Structure formats: structure tokens, C-alpha cells
Amino acid sequence: MSETLRVCALYPDLMNIYADRGNIAVLRARCEWRGLGFELSASGMNERLDPRGADLFYMGGGQDRDQALVAQDMVDTKRESLHEAAASGAVVLAVCGGYQLLGHSYHLGGQELPGIGLVDLYTVREEGPRLIGNCAIEADLGTGPRIVAGFENHGGRTYLGAGEQPLGRVLNGFGNNGKDGFEGVHRDNVIGTYLHGPLLPKNVWLADRLIEIALGIELAPLDDIMEEAAHMSARRAAGVA
User: Fold this and answer.
1) What is the pLDDT of residues 149-177, one digit of tens each?
2) Do residues 176 and 157 make contact, with C-beta atoms less than 8 angstroms apart?
3) How many other CB atoms are there within 10 angstroms of residue 237's CB atom?
4) CB of 124 within 8 A of CB of 107?
5) Catalytic status, residue 96
6) Which residue in the list 8, 31, 154, 196 is annotated as catalytic?
7) Percentage of residues in the chain with pLDDT exceeding 70?
8) Which pLDDT score, from 0 to 100, does residue 62 have?
């Protein structure tokens, strides 16, 4: 059991348009406040990935042009390593554009972006408005149902394969495609979601749970008065009391 959380950020210079670095900042703070170590590395374009070099691999969202740049490189330089990392129990957390690239493909107009096939899903840019607004879902990461609140802004509609489980049930908002009532994907320690704002500052319980899963430990509680207030504010914004 390691007492240091090792996080690897994938394409942090390109996939970070929704203040996604705030997610990493929260993971660092939650570790340091408990006396746990924290190490951050990065893997960008044309860089191979060590599947055992991190306990948690993180990828945020990006503009369509940046996502197109990243997609093929991710397949070429990181696909096999991420499959190996996930199979060995590492946590993989991907948000918005990063989430879309966890699946098989993203059909974007006349262009098809390849995914790494870590989970069985595909995304299509369909006719209709972008799915934008505050969103709340009910999710269970092994400690009972909890509410995850955030903000979604995506033009793609994501569809899960028959054997995949969503991250949660939509309480308010659009979710994966605005049709089936589900949001995100959750397979073992792999999590994909459209929720940002960013995600973990609004849901510190989720940050703690990811640390527990990644390190195989149980965390002591913290005094989270201000963090809980932020969570409640995000819930109210999403229309969930």
C-alpha cells in the first residue's frame, strides 16, 4: 500500500478548457491535509505512458480541434498502457472530451475521431442544440448512493454499449445524450463523465473516494464545512435540494 497518490495528467496543455486543473488541485489538497504524499506527472503528444507510473490517470476536456489532435496520438502512444493500467487497478478519470475518447469513436460531422476502447461506448455529434446547463446525478461508488453535481456543455451525444454501466442516474439535466436518463460511465475503476465546473471541487466526497480506491485505503474525515457548502450550492443550481 502506497502512502503517496501518484497522478498522471494526460495532455494537460490541450485538454483543459473547463478549469480542469482544479480537479488535480483538489486531489493534491485532500492528500496533503491528511499527511499523504502527492506526486504529479504528465504525458502529452508523442509521449509513451508507463502503465504502472501512476495510481490515477486523469484527462480533461478540450476544443474540437485539440481533441482531434489528441485522439490519434492517444491511440498510438497510450492506448495499450491505459488498458494495462486499468486492468491492474489504477483509477482512470476522464471528463467531457476525455470521456468521449475512452470509447470506440467520436463521429464529429464528416470526421471520425478514434477512441481507445477502454469502455464500450461511442459518441455522435447529432442535429440539435448543445446540451448545456447545471446537472445532478445519483451515483454509487461502493459506499451507497450519493449526489454528484456539476455543469455540462457538450455537443456530442454518448451511447453506452449494452454491457456498460452509467456513472449515475440523471436527477436534473441532460446526461449522456438527453434521452436515456443516464450520465457517464463506470466500469471497475474507470470513470467517464460530462460533469465539470470543475467536478471535484464541487464534490469533494468523490475526490476522497477516488483517492481511497487508487491507494486501497480508508480516509479519515476532514472538516468540510466550506466544501459541503459549495456542494450544496451546486446541487441547488442543478435543481436538487
Assistant:
1) 999 999 999 999 999 999 999 999 999 99
2) yes
3) 18
4) yes
5) yes
6) 196
7) 98
8) 85
Residue 19 pLDDT: 66
3-state secondary structure of 1: coil
User: Where would I find the H helices in the chain?
Assistant: 21-32, 64-77, 79-87, 97-100, 199-202, 204-215, 225-237
Structural element, H or E, at residue 7: strand 4-10
Distance CA 145, CA 175 (A): 17
239 sits in the region (left: phi over 0; alpha: psi -120 to 50; else beta) called: left
Q: How far apart are CA 218 and CA 79, in angstroms?
A: 30
- Pick from 110, 44, 103, 91: nearest CA to 191: 91
- The whole-number pLDDT of residue 1 equals 47
Q: Given phi > 0 = left and psi -120 to 50 = alpha, else beta, which region is 49?
A: beta
Tell me whether residue 196 is one of the annotated catalytic residues.
yes
Q: How far apart are CA 103 and CA 76, in angstroms?
A: 15
Q: What is the mean pLDDT of the chain?
A: 95
Q: Give the amino acid at 28.
A: R
- Choice among 96, 154, 186, 231 that is catalytic: 96
pTM strictly above 0.85: yes
Kindly give the parts of the chain with pLDDT less than 50: 1
Q: What does the alpha-carbon distance between residue 211 and residue 183 come to, in Å, rounded to a whole number?
A: 22
- 55-80 core/surface letters (b: 16 or more CB in 10 A; e: else): bbbbbbbbebebbebbbeebbebbbe
